[in-house]
């Protein structure tokens, strides 16, 4: 499990700032995205502590109850666990998506029809959609949903129907259970993705840790702060490559984009934007909230005891 890696293009922070020069030509799409219920999930930028995310995924397991509902549980310290569920995702990402009739996957035909209306040719190689075949506004739309919110770690130019489902649902204003869709990604990483398992959803995990265990929210000594990439000007310039005709937004998307209501992007900051020096907090963190490395760094005498106990076990 020590070889689990962070993927730099996964779970990015969306840049939906219409004031940057590169945003010209995308303003209506940016405004639409800023006004969706998913803006916090796309743009929240917590301070992410690498050790906590690594500890969770190294120990994570899928637990399923009698009703067939799955959760993922893992350790974030020696004595604290985090349970990821559909509801914990919904709470952390501030998504009100548990409405009756909300789907978490659309049919192949529904996805194909929507993408054709976006301007995608009616040919789908290997049953996938090709982002390069869309106009730049729709490229941006797919980019944000894929790289900020989906389980994928690479291969963003082509994507299958299950990844396309939230794109279609948001574009067509259909009830969609995004929390359940993200939860399926957590399970996938442990069950179906074992061979390519990676440190998935670091932003989302940190947001859940901050809620479930706020006392360790500002620690991280010896753990390192994980830099989560933002979309940037280059991201926008890449969307403009090619001569694909730019099909306009759907009617309801234009209505939302042109709404006069000013909805600010909500970013998540610790201590109102100030990064607390983790070393100043060392003495404030109780022993039971430390992982093994941190605990033995504070109590090296206990490490010797543990090693001696291990030798006794082997001699038996």
Question: Helices, strands, pairings?
Answer:
Blueprint (H helix, E strand, L loop, with lengths): L26 H8 L4 H5 L4 E2 H10 L1 E4 L5 E6 L5 E4 L1 H7 L15 H10 L11 E2 L5 H14 L8 E2 L1 H11 L6 H13 L11 H11 L12 E2 L6 H7 L11 H7 L34 H7 L1 H16 L1
Antiparallel strand pairs: 1-7, 2-3, 3-4, 5-6
Helix pairs in contact: 1-11, 4-8, 4-9, 5-7, 6-7, 12-13
Short description:
Residues 293-316 are annotated as: Disordered. This protein is mostly helical.
Number of domains: 1
Q: What is the global morphology?
A: globular
Number of helical elements: 13
Mean pLDDT: 82
Please bin the fraction of helical residues.
25-40%
Beta-strand segment tally:
7
Radius of gyration: 22 Å
Helix-strand category: mainly alpha
How far apart the termini lie comes to 29 Å
H/E series: HHEHEEEHHEHEHHHEHHHH
Contiguous uncertain segments of 5+ residues:
218-222, 263-284
What's the arrangement of strands in the largest beta sheet? Answer: 2-3-4
Strand content: 5-15%
Main sheet: strands, sense, barrel: 3 strands, antiparallel
Biased composition (Acidic residues): 302-316
Region (Disordered): 293-316
Question: Could you explain how this protein is built, in words?
Answer:
The protein has 13 helices and 7 strands. It has one domain. The strands form 3 sheets. A 3-stranded antiparallel sheet has the order 2-3-4. Strands 1-7 form a two-stranded antiparallel sheet. It is mainly alpha-helical and 316 residues long. A hairpin with a 5-residue loop joins strand 3 and strand 4.
How would you describe this structure in keywords?
single chain; 316 residues; mainly alpha; two-stranded antiparallel sheet; 40% helix
